[in-house]
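Predicting structure from sequence has reshaped protein science. With that in mind, we have picked out one protein's residues alongside their backbone shape tokens:
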Amino acid sequence: MIPHKLTLCLLLFLFGPNTILAQQRKPPAGGRLAVVVDERLAALRAMPQLNSQLVRRLSRGRLVAIRSSKTSADGITFVLVNVSRRTHGWIQREAVVSSSRAGDDRKLLTLIKRSDGFDRIVRARIFLDHFARSPFRPEVLLFLGDTAEDLAAKLSVDAARRLKDGLGDAPEFSYYLNYTGLDRYNRQRVGFVFEKTTKRFHYDGAAWRELIRHYPHSTAALAARKRL
């Protein structure tokens, strides 16, 4: 029998880490697909009550399958969800959105507007991944691009502070583009370019270009053209 660690190594070698990750994120069955967007409310509970036993806390971006709903005595609506074949429980309705439920795209847009920084990036990415036909996509693409460009200034300062001493023989710009602070943005498919003369990051503009390409006559596209 092949040891567990060796099996995992063979799987990673044959299929790559993205394939393994995709299998781990396979949508649960048994109900209407939804995604966690507000981790502050994402406590999975044994019963539809705020003081019920905590089963686990779900992370932002986690897929669940909604089976039913129930409103508690204090007016909080809970949904019964499957997290996996073995894990299920009740979660507050405001913690999740579903592309199959009318109005949830507007609900998530409101949450994006009330977010800032990296939180806004993550929630905008969830929107774009799960609401393919929403009329709010142009607005969200503009939010994503503008937020990334705003964050580029802070990333530039942080990277300069971390890299001011101890650089090796590699080109200086390569240290910046390998800066660990960029990793979480890369996982959200948000990229940055580096200007060597000013030593500053700038957003690569992918969301703005997508906005112009797919929604050329929108008000948001007009704004995006000015950014580029």
